[in-house]
Amino acid sequence: MGVTGPPGPVMDRDEVDRALARLGAEHKAVEDSLLALQDHAGRRLLEGAELTGTTRERWAAAERTITLLWTCFDVYTDALREAREVRARRRWPGREELVELTDLLRGESVLVPGGAGEEALLSERFTLEGLVRRMNELYASSLDLVVTADAVWSALPARIDLLAAELGRTRSLAHSVGVRPGEHPAGDELEEITAELGRLRSQVITDPLAFWRPAAGSSAPGGGRPDTGRYDRAALALEDVRREIEAVLAVRQDSEERLLRLRDVLSRADRTLAEARAARGEVLAKIAASEVPAVSGPPTALQERLVAAAEYRRHAQWHRLSPLLDSLEREAEDELLRARESLTAVTAPLAVRAELRGRLDAYRAKVARLGAAEDPLLIERYDAARRMLWSAPCDLRVAEQAVLRYQRAAAEALSGPGDAEGAGKTEDAGNARGAGNARGAGNARDAGNARGAGNAEGAGGRQW
Question: What is the rounded CA–CA span in Å between residue 212 and residue 206?
């Protein structure tokens, strides 16, 4: 609806005609707006709904505003009709008619009653243009409430119904895999979401204005958007539950394969620990003055939980099987890793002995290739080192020194008197570092190679 121009002094005939045309156009615009408001879907819903809270209070005030708006329009219609009648008296109105028309069109000649009884004291006088402005204000506030309620009702209930349908499908799927309230957290969450959606829909229907977020700085009717915070939280919660149920379904489909893999991993861990225990006995018997770590027993607790997982699968308790399988898979891999680390730690002395044996034989082969194999000192030192490395129990520290002495003697024999000292120092430093690395990097395969090397040798006292 528009607003008329400013008032002026006594009007001439042309000014009167223009004002009447303008006010007539305003009258038509106001009438069309009021009829549109009367037929607005939001208004009809507000009139027929059982409202609560903020919406009930504001709609009660809006109904009074709309009633006042129609009263103002009726008064405006009467005043405009009267002005038109005065203008129609003469084609060329005299001064008296122009003064009267000026008063009607620009003066505060319009009285809007405030109601009956005490409310009559609230009656107000307006100019026709002032009355149009007043009707614009009343119309804007009424339309804002109607448009706001209609926007909420158009947006939220339909979305809530769609989410409720999805909730129903999710509940059915959850029931099929044993996810029920009181038995699984997801079942309890589904119950909470169901109750929240019921409350939300009821509140949206009865109090839509409580779910409206006005736009900052906007004065247009219906400026803002529906507040979907509670709906969004319920939708996210349902999506989380749906993913959890899909995970349970996936467990039902591949649980047998996962159980077989778990049995295999635990079996390998058990075999590795058995090998570590056997290797520890061998190390204690063959290696002297060596600290050998203890080896833990088989993973019986995990085996018991694996039996429980098989029972869950047998009785189709997928919601219990899903988290149990997840934890078992992590712990079984950890157990296999610990078993391998235990075997590596236990067999480290055997790996060091194998490295020393290999180094000793490599230097002997080098000496023989260069024609110094018959040197008495080399033969003596080789035999001493060999006896230590191929006899039990073997003291690795003493055996390492014997190998280093043989290396120095070989370096002196091969490089001559001038270079013996420098070459010996170089060999000592390099080989000492190699022995240290071998002690830290031993493994079961090295231990097996060491045992094979010991059996292959045929000389030097008791063979190991």
Answer: 13
Residue 255's alpha-carbon distances to 173, 260, 435, in angstroms, are 18, 9, 48
Indicate the SS3 state at residue 458: coil
Helices (H), 370-416: 376-389, 396-415
d(CA 93, CA 103): 14
Residue 225: phi and psi, rounded to 5, are -155, 160
**DSSP codes joined into one string, 30-73:** HHHHHHHHHH-HHHHHHHHS---HHHHHHHHHHHHHHHHHHHHH
pLDDT, position 160: 95
Give the Å distances, CA to CA, from 361 to 349, 367, 431. Answer: 19, 10, 14
Task: Spell out a b/e string for 95-113, using b for 16 or more CB atoms within 10 Å of the CB, else e.
Answer: eebbebbbbbbbbebbebe
Instruction: Give the CA-trace dihedral at 182, 184, 185, 191, to 10 degrees.
Output: -50
Residue range 190-241, pLDDT digits in tens: 999 999 999 999 999 999 999 999 887 666 676 789 999 999 999 999 999 9
- What's the alpha-carbon Rg for the chain, to the nearest Å? 50
d(CA 54, CA 15): 47
Q: How far is CA 13 from CA 17, 88, 112, 125, in A?
A: 6, 12, 28, 25
Answer positive or negative: Cα dihedral of 76, 77, 78, 80: positive
pLDDT score recorded for residue 122: 63
Buried b (16+ CB within 10 A) or exposed e, 200-226: bbebbbebbbebbeeeeeeeeebebeb
- pLDDT for res 398: 87
Enumerate residues 6+ apart whose C-beta is below 8 A from 105: 7, 11, 16, 19, 20, 23, 83, 127, 128
Give every CB contact of residue 347 below 8 A, 6+ residues apart in sequence. Answer: 276, 279, 283, 442, 443, 444, 446, 447
212 close to 152: Cβ distance less than 8 angstroms: yes
Q: What's the pLDDT score for residue 432?
A: 40
Q: Which residues of 18-56 are buried (b: 16+ CB within 10 A; e: fewer)?
A: ebbebbeebbeebeebbeebeebebbebbeebebeeebe
CB contact at 8 A, 319 and 188: no
3-state secondary structure (DSSP) of residue 224? strand
Residues contacting 349, CB < 8 A, separation 6+: 283, 287, 290, 292, 396, 439, 442
The stretches in the chain having pLDDT less than 70 are 1-8, 114-122, 217-220, 222, 289-290, 416-464
Per-residue confidence (pLDDT) for residue 395, from 0 to 100: 83
